[in-house]
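Researcher: Here's the sequence for the chain we discussed earlier.
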Amino acid sequence: MTKPMPAPGRAASRTAVALAVLLAGLLCDPTSTQAHSPVFRLSPWPAGVATPAIRLLDTQGQARTLADFRGAVTVIYFGFLSCPDLCPMTMSRLALALKRLGTQPLPVRVVFITLDPERDSPAALDAYTHAFGPQFSALTGSTAMINDAAAAFFVEHARVGEGSSATIDHSTGIFVLDPKGRLRVVGSTDSTAEDLAHDFRLLARGRPR
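Model: Thanks. This is the structure I predict for it:
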């Protein structure tokens, strides 16, 4: 079962706590203009932490980086297709948020990054994401590529069990980039569709900078 904060082991738990302390400290940094922005409803990404750099593959096998998504508000979510609860719930909430946006100056896209590339085939990822709407797509890659991407976003994950019954415990986050490719805010599985749509709308309109 997917959980907001996994406990795959003591080392992973210590890492998660250390990252939480780091981000909390940056969010309290008075030099961070993003940290004190009153307009966002989601949590601002600290100005002192760079936007992650990743290199993955789309479902057609083409190499992709975050630069390929510039020009649109881009939402990144890590999950896996056999996730029984939080992944489909979060994707459905994102689809609802997009429906509530109406017409925007710039598009809003959702990119689902699989944490289970060994079992989540490109065809299955296509079918899964397209079921939520045309704005949804997926990225995959080798296990090493996925691990690097997850680490760049501070996403903890660990396989639990073996074979077809294996599941993946992972931390959850909804990472939102502005049209210039800068990571601006982070939502959670508790974020409402209204709050998500609110921040998507602000970024699609170019505010705040």
